[in-house]
Amino acid sequence: MLSSLSITDAHRKLKKKEISAEELVQSCIDRIEKIDSSINAVVFRNFDSALKEAKKIDSSGIFDHPLTGIPYLTKDNFCEAGVPTTACSRILQDPVYIPPFDCTTTKRLKNVGAISIGKSNTDEFTMGSSTETSCFGPTSTPWDTTRVAGGSSGGSAAGVASDECLFGLGTDTGSSIRLPASFCGCTGLKVTYGRTSRYGVMSMASSLDTIGPLAKNVEDIAIILRTIAGHDPYDATTGNIPVPDYPKHLTGVIKGMKIGLPREYFIDGLHTDIEQATKDAAKTFEKLGATIIDISLPHTEYALPTYYIICPSEVSSNMARYDGVRFGHSIKTPKHLIDYYERVRSEGFGDEIKRRIIIGTYLLSAGYFEAYYRKAQKVRTLITNDFDEAFKTVDVIIAPTSPNPPFGIGAHQNDPVAMYLEDILLTPQNLAGIPAISIPSGFSKKNLPIGLQIMGPHWEEGRMLNAGYAFQQATDWHTRKPPL
User: Which residue among the candidates 75, 107, 119, 216 is catalytic per the annotation?
Assistant: First the structure.
């Protein structure tokens, strides 16, 4: 099955003319049509356009870039010109929103000949950890279709893990690439804040949002990142810093590397299988010549409450633009202007968005801004300082990605706090703006995938990727396939 190829292997075959781009795209299409009814990863299929582009690339016969002719899935909050983009929300479905432009990331991918074959499922406006807030319904992990794929980039993760595409695009605001990567058994990268452009990607929390790839291994992640990273004049938050040749960082040599193991990440309630997998991973790194050092990140316990003050505050601002005036859901014959706004947003938004808007508006209101939001920003600085101090001693940090394996669909339906706790090990990195990657590191006794999180200093994706690459060279967890 061609769709099971890695980017590196597919590029090699395309360049040698052993396969065509059309055959590769068709293989992904066939796979989606065969299994997606079981996992619900793809919410819009752009097959005709993808095949047309593949034929065009084949006729040129030029495959100089590793991503030329490579099919991928785009999370449904990335704007693509002429392609329905709804953030899996009812408010952008009647009428459906069709962007007149490409976001920077998809534009850069198109420029090198990568082929978008469809939009992948996400929690509504990326707010959630399970894709259960999507108006299209939840995505299942391909390892057990009664369990969630994680969120919010669950569609892209499930699509990669089940070979519906060769890579996917996601966003990570407080877990949303790494958690689904862990739950689906693929590799997912959260970049340094400002390493990739957010232009044209629908915002949730502007000071926390990052965009990045999900793929079958670290080597593929490095190829994608080299292509999409870099300064963008349309996004003032991108760093004007040269983009390294990330694939060249993948030497697999980590002898002498100092790896931190933070005690605060081994929390009460951490699943025993995940704890053991993390300790086994540390032993693997030691066998490869690295030194494991126990470290402390003392303000970790405050990260989740800090995140759930800052994030809803920014949500309340970013969601204000969705009022049905210029685009999206509208209503007829309102009684007056207030009635119009109330009905548009009540009908268009789901419960989780409404919850965050209300919380965020409250936190920013007079009398509460100083008590909550400003204090949260001060704690955010303390969390950032923790990482800065740790990286003076160690090169990278490893920890579990999630405290639990994938949970059942509906398990947290009536308990939003329990859902928020799934992100407890994943929000500190977004608050600090550092890069982090989740890679497969084992399986639970119920054959559910487990992820290992590797964190690096600001702008040091290359160092972090090499650590992950060395681990994948020494293990085969990332090669395991779900029983679909």
Answer: 75
**Does the annotation count 152 as an active-site position?**
yes
The tokens for 121 are: 């499922």
Residues facing residue 397 across a β-bridge: 260, 455
The amino acid that residue 239 corresponds to is G
Q: Is the pLDDT of residue 367 over 90?
A: no
Q: Distance between CA atoms of 453 and 422, rounded to whole angstroms?
A: 14
**pTM (whole model) above 0.90:** yes
Q: How far apart are CA 212 and CA 214, in angstroms?
A: 7
Q: Tell me the per-residue pLDDT of 166-212, one tens digit each, with 9 for 90 and over.
A: 999 999 999 999 999 999 999 999 999 999 999 999 999 999 999 99
Catalytic residue among 134, 176, 197, 441: 176
106 vs 228, 286, 368, CA distance in Å?
8, 39, 40
pLDDT (tens digit, 9 = 90+) per residue, 437-469?
999 999 999 999 999 999 999 999 999 999 999
Q: Is 248 a catalytic residue?
A: no
**Residue 299 near residue 384 (C-beta atoms within 8 A):** no
For range 265-289, the mean pLDDT:
97
Indicate whether 94 pLDDT > 90. no
| pLDDT (average), residues 23-33 | 98
- The one catalytic residue in 3, 89, 152, 438 is 152
Smallest CA-to-CA distance from 307 within 404, 209, 395, 451 is with: 209
Exposed/middle/buried for residue 12 (C-beta within 10 Å: 0-12, 13-18, 19+): middle
User: Is residue 313 flagged as an active site residue?
Assistant: no
CATH superfamily, domain 2-298+384-479, is Amidase signature (AS) domain (3.90.1300.10)
pLDDT of residue 324: 87
Amino acid letter at 178? R
Return the exposure string of 179-211: e unless at least 16 CB atoms fall within 10 Å of the residue's CB, then b: bbbbbbbbbbbbbbbbbbbbbbbbbbbebbbbb
Q: What is the pLDDT of residue 83?
A: 97
Structure tokens at 41: 């990863």
